[in-house]
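Tokens as discussed.
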């Protein structure tokens, strides 16, 4: 893939201190896979921790509007989202949210609605009537960046537009009114061409990587904090805590390169600019749990940061954090998608 250069998301002056974060869950159940689940007890604890930390838990569309308008620096706001449309969320999570008067968002794949362990159309309508958002997760939960066989670019674009618009139309028919044009990429996979399709269609779109929202974000590639049993501890004795992620501040990154995270290379490089004041900051960067040493080069009033590390086949992340005041961290995350020379990685 060609390296491309943009001045895009994650931009916010380093002095800002508000947190606007979106949490991403799948299952809330005891017997479902750990990689996509939290227990009911863990979920209840997370809600209590959010309250104890002073977060205002908002519907996702309200949070997005607040960020776009510019939050007060003292604010801490969060939204809670679920992917796919599992019935255990309806049974186990929504009652806990309803007791607090908090509204969540469910990103739904309509082709799976009514199947075993999935929500029905009637349950989705019930969610909407209770004030929760029902949103678009694509018609078939496809790997949207993947072309089919000899599929042309034009045919791929048409297929992706259908994935998005067909799902939106059916969800609105079931619910009975227009829904916010919000989209969550299946598997978090996206590239510049797919983001452009969502942008032209007027959608706000979300990925799957940790970070805080900023007013100058890329609105077709917004962060959501993935939460599962492996990363559910609010304050573990070692490693990053969910508390750190929820309290994250947006790192003031600009001129991010490359624009596409899709690659066939075994090693990769990500670079971005930070304000000149960051030249003395200690950035802690990681790939696959291993520490990376960032290269920092002063360029006038800015600092160019370059990260180099091995990339395993599949989806993986580069992450950088930097300490802020009040025991909080600025956070930047980048998700690689490395495919083999032939075919695609297995799930």
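Sequence:
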């Amino acid at each position: 893939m060609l390296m491309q250069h943009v001045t895009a998301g994650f931009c916010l002056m380093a002095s800002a201190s508000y947190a606007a974060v979106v949490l991403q869950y799948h299952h809330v159940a005891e017997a479902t896979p750990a990689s996509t689940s939290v227990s009911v007890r863990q979920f209840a604890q997370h809600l209590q921790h959010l309250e104890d930390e002073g977060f205002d838990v908002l519907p996702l569309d309200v949070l997005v509007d607040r960020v776009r308008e510019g939050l007060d620096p003292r604010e801490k706001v969060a939204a809670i989202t679920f992917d796919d449309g599992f019935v255990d969320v309806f049974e186990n999570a929504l009652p806990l949210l309803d007791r607090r008067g908090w509204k969540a968002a469910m990103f739904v794949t309509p082709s799976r609605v009514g199947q075993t362990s999935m929500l029905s159309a009637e349950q989705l309508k019930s969610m909407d009537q209770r004030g929760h958002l029902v949103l678009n997760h694509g018609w078939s939960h496809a790997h949207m960046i993947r072309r089919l066989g000899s599929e042309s670019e034009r045919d791929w674009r048409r297929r992706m537009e259908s994935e998005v618009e067909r799902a939106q139309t059916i969800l609105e028919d079931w619910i009975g009114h227009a829904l916010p044009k919000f989209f969550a990429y299946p598997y978090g996979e996206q590239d510049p061409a797919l983001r452009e399709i969502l942008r032209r269609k007027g959608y706000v779109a979300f990925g799957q990587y940790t970070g805080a929202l900023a007013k100058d974000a890329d609105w077709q590639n917004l962060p959501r904090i993935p939460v599962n049993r492996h990363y559910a501890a609010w304050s573990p004795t070692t490693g990053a805590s969910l508390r750190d992620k929820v309290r994250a501040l947006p790192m003031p990154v600009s001129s991010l390169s490359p624009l596409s995270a899709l690659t066939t290379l075994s090693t990769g490089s990500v670079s971005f600019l930070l304000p000149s004041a960051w030249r003395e900051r200690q950035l802690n960067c990681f790939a696959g749990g291993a520490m990376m040493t960032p290269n920092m080069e002063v360029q006038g009033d800015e600092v160019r940061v370059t990260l180099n590390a091995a990339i395993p086949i599949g989806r993986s992340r580069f992450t950088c954090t930097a300490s802020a005041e009040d025991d909080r961290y600025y956070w930047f995350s980048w998700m690689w998608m490395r495919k083999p020379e032939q075919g695609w990685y297995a799930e």
